[in-house]
Amino acid sequence: MSPKVILLFSGKRKCGKDFLTDRLKEKFGDKCEIIKISKPIKNHWAKENNLNLNELLSDGEYKELYRLAMIKWSDEMREKDYGCFCRAACENAVDKPIWIVSDIRRATDVQWFKETYGDLIRTIRLIADEETRIERGFQFKPGVDDVASECGLDNYNEWDLVINNGKERQSLEEQLSSIVALIPNL
Prior knowledge:
Elements: E1 5-11, H1 17-28, E2 32-35, H2 38-49, H3 53-57, H4 61-80, H5 84-91, E3 98-104, H6 107-117, E4 121-127, H7 130-135, H8 148-151, E5 161-164, H9 172-180
Parallel strand pairs: 1-3, 1-4, 2-3, 4-5
């Protein structure tokens, strides 16, 4: 059995991707699997550098210490094979009807999923004003916030849904309902 729908989430740091995808996971329960493209990157990085994988996967400061180096290494790997991390993340995914990919960052990520899974794909972009992101802990970092890993989808316009998760945001229930509306009957 393969997934019936794959929800690809994109957005800048501190726009609320993990919060929203975690709420979706709670809503769908065991019908749903969260997939992180960053997991194979962080897994490799943790092993190579004897680091704590759980801390790298979290949203804390520990990850920020290594973010720039991980970005550079992952960009080098993507130059050789743009789908390498998408493929690795999906190979380890649990077989559930709904896959939520919580960290789409580049047009090549969307391209790989569309080439591989076709009509199963639904794309969702989260946006939030900078003031809200700063309230959530965002601090601009050169080499992180001005490169492809944060800006690679800024000019992508083929989203199935755009959710404002900043000051003008709808309630969480309204946001979740708009996402659920993208999902075919399972």
